[in-house]
Amino acid sequence: IGSDTIATRGNHQPVLSYSTQADDETRAGTTGIYANPFDNLITGASKLGAVPGFDFFEVPGHPWTMFDVFPGAPSVTNGTTIVFKGNYTVDGQGKTGVFYRDLGDGEHGGFSPVELIASNTDTLIPGTKTRFGSTSPPSAADGKAVFAGFDIEESPTEGGLYLADLKNPKKLKTLVSIGGKVPGEPRYNTFNRLGEGVAFDGRYMGFWGAWETETATVRLYCPTEGNKDRIAYCNRKLKCLDDWGIPTDVVEKDPNSVCIDENGETLPICYQEMQIPVLQGIFVHDTEDGNTRVVAKTGEGFDDFVFWNYSGKTPCVGNGHGQEGAEDDGEPSRWRSSSFVAVSGRSTAFKAATGNVVGIYLDHGTTRTVLDTTMNGQALDPEAPEGSTITELGLEREGLRGDWLVINAKMGIEGESEEDGMAGIYATKVR
User: What is the rounded radius of gyration, in angstroms, for the C-alpha atoms of the chain?
Assistant: First the structure.
């Protein structure tokens, strides 16, 4: 937030070959985190922790243990420090945690080791005797980081949102808890779900939360655009296609992604139903005075703040050994739900849906629409196809910094192919 440094996760071919004691050649380093604190891109973290001479990349507290993958996006603070989520394996068990590494020791990143903030092997949830079961990619600013951590990721009973000062990173401060009171609601309403996509500017933290037990059903259809291996895998998982890609008990498929059997009966087999909380909202927590305020919630102009994406590592792609690809994060392909919020000072940007309209909204005392899916594509980008509309919008948790808001958008024409549309990343001053 206070420098020109960026950090990104990247997957690639192995970067290093070395010989073991048995004289076997081993190739390593197929994913890492890269940053530019000294202008040129350097390696901030890498899947090289088990390689001799690269022990500064190992998982802290677990000698000769490498990170398997770095899910989600890393964050940067103080110009030279990267903060990230890392997954690794201990005794055959998958583990996860939040870590940081200072790259300020020399122009090539130096030899400073990776440091632990919290993990599900080493850290108790504050105020409990329960270890973290899951952690989320962090957001960092001003030498501090915030992240979400829970006992059970899918249905948490303990955990919440936590702040770590990197001067004393293992002393976690609880900001918002599962079971904590929902601002603006009756006293008995407490958070039972909190989003992983937390945003942080050094003082304010933006987040998604839900309460009560009432749910609504959403239907999720396999994607029709993007990675073809993942599309095929999704359809097979939903038993719409068999292992050879042939429709199952299907003569034809209608435009609404429901299947028609040989008797002409509709078979709704090509979607998955998920339950979403009816009562949910976007909130901002002030880490200095401890107050939490409502930015937006359902029933007050918005229907939903949760969005779904089928993503992850598809089995048996490439050479048949499940290679990591540029579109996966090393975790299995499945439906993932996310909320999207960014915060900077008194301003909060968030993504929301009302009916079939999806938009990016900005709250600064009052809420206004920045972009939504009713708008003409050429109003956003003069190079968009004539007659196109905005079809998709995205916002990252650090997409609002100072007066600048950065979003991604896709424009297209209904009924035409993906190749006939366009997409881009766009920035605008919001004040």
Answer: 23
